[in-house]
Amino acid sequence: MPSQTFSAQDFIALEERYGAHNYHPLDVVLTKGQGVWVWDVEGRKYLDCLAAYSAVNQGHNHPRIVAAMVEQAQRIALTSRAFRNDQLGPFVKAVSELTGFSRVLPMNSGAEAVETSLKAARKWGEKVKGVPAGQQEIIAFEHNFSGRTIAIISFSDEAQYRDGFGPFTPGFKLVPYGDAEALERAITPNTVAILMEPVQGEGGIIIPPAGTLKKIREICTKHRVLMILDEIQSGLGRTGKMFAWEHEGARPDAMTLGKALSGGMYPVSVFVADDEVMGVFHPGDHGSTFGGNPIGAAVGQAAIKVLREEGLVENAAVQGKRLGDGIKAIGAASFQEVRQIGLWIGLELKPLAGGARRYCEALKDEGMLCKETHEHTIRVAPPLCITANEVDWALDKLQKVFARLG
Ligand SMILES: Cc1ncc(COP(=O)(O)O)c(C=O)c1O
Question: Is 231 close to ligand 1, i.e. is its CB under 6 Å away?
Fold first, then answer.
């Protein structure tokens, strides 16, 4: 559909008329992106401060990732795992070398990678740890977000994510986020794994107290419970380290990755673990038609190369500090708290500020795209390739909007 003959309102009307109403987006209709910038159908330019929930860490349409995708699409797109292809081997090798885990299971969406981790943990629990079949327990944390499947929402405590979707999958327990003592108390002989986001992204950029991951690592080792980290949003540079667990040297037993594993170009996710855990999967146990497909595998290799070779992780640490310090310095009366790790900032507003949405709307009018998370948090998380000048530009816009809206 040629966008020049349709206005933004036309596209919005089509979406509203024919699409399911399961999102509440800002009314900006994007048609092009490059680096940290995106353009709408009416030619307006915006700084993308959401980066597709960290899927676009490498920046929009990174030329090296686009080239890998186009080149692969012109050769072969999909083989299924019924046959082998010449991209999957190099891709799983690249992921293994990046993560330090010996085995890689490719999927597509983040939720599928998390589902894979739950299946691996349950089967490891029964076949290796010796928990009676059907008794395996997995402990997750309050305010978690790991996707939208039935099993994943079964351990969500967000009422809206569950409302009407029962019956739920049994076998999960919740403990307060970051509370290592509560976690240890919740462990029973049937506990096979804990599943944790090292930083809760959808929860509002919630960073656990220093030392938490280390303590949880020790508890998991002591009780022979798998420590599984969901690094789908926190991983691949967002926190200023390649993986968030590196801040505390708390290497997990397994990990899920997605989003930026393709630089936003294609749905690519993985579950990674060492041989003892991954060894529970045998042919036919698990899979996906598209998982490990040649385009995804080629794009994934390019996305990893870009992250490593272009210094994006280091840049996230430097520009994140500049942005975080700058936001704190604005110090508007409506600020409740500014939480920051790497290039990931949760700007929590006071309840009296009237909600984060109106700030996001005002920022959009200034050419800066942010998205509220929950009612009172503005999330600021631009692509990791942002420059100091672009950070200063964003700070200027934030300053202006906070001065105007109070
Ligand atoms: C930590 C985490 N896990 C899993 C997911 C689910 O990923 P997807 O939307 O690709 O299924 C998300 C998505 O925001 C996430 O932030």
Answer: no
Q: How does strand 377-380 pair with strand 45-48? A: unpaired
Write out the residue limits of the CATH 3.90.1150.10 domain(s) in the chain: 3-58+311-405
How far does residue 103's CA lie from ligand 1's centre (Å)? 21
301 lines ligand 1 (CB under 6 A): no
How many angstroms separate the alpha carbon of residue 110 from the centre of ligand 1?
A: 5
CATH topology of domain 3-58+311-405: Aspartate Aminotransferase, domain 1 (3.90.1150)
Residue holding tokens 């349409």? 61
pLDDT digits (tens, 9 = 90+) for 192-244: 999 999 999 999 999 999 999 999 999 999 999 999 999 999 999 999 999 99
Question: Could you give the CA distance from residue 28 to residue 9 in angstroms, rounded to a whole number?
Answer: 9
Known catalytic membership, residue 259 = yes
Which of 141, 146, 161, 268 has most ligand 1 atoms within 8 Å of its beta carbon, as the pocket-test mutant?
146
**Using CA atoms, how far apart are residues 80 and 99, in angstroms rounded to an integer?**
25
Residue 155 CB less than 6 A away from ligand 1: no
Instruction: Indicate whether 32 pLDDT > 80.
Output: yes
What DSSP designation does 109 have? S
Nearest-5° Cα angle at 150, 147 to 156: 60
Ligand 1: centre distance to CA 114 (Å): 8
CATH 3.40.640.10 location in the chain: 63-309
Q: What is the pLDDT of residues 106-126, one digit of tens each?
A: 999 999 999 999 999 999 999
Residues 40, 48, 179, 230: which is the catalytic one?
Answer: 230
Whether the Cβ atoms of residue 196 and residue 230 lie closer than 8 Å to each other = yes
* Minimum-distance ligand 1 atom for the alpha carbon of 197: 1
Of 340, 323, 329, 330, residue with least CA distance to 377: 340
The CATH code that applies to domain 63-309 is 3.40.640.10
Query: Which ligand 1 atom minimizes the distance to the CA of 258?
Result: 10
**Confidence band for 311, pLDDT divided at 50, 70 and 90:** very high
Query: Looking at the whole model, is its pTM more than 0.90?
Result: yes
Catalytic residue among 123, 215, 241, 259: 259
The 10s digit of each residue's pLDDT in 318-331 is 999 999 999 999 98
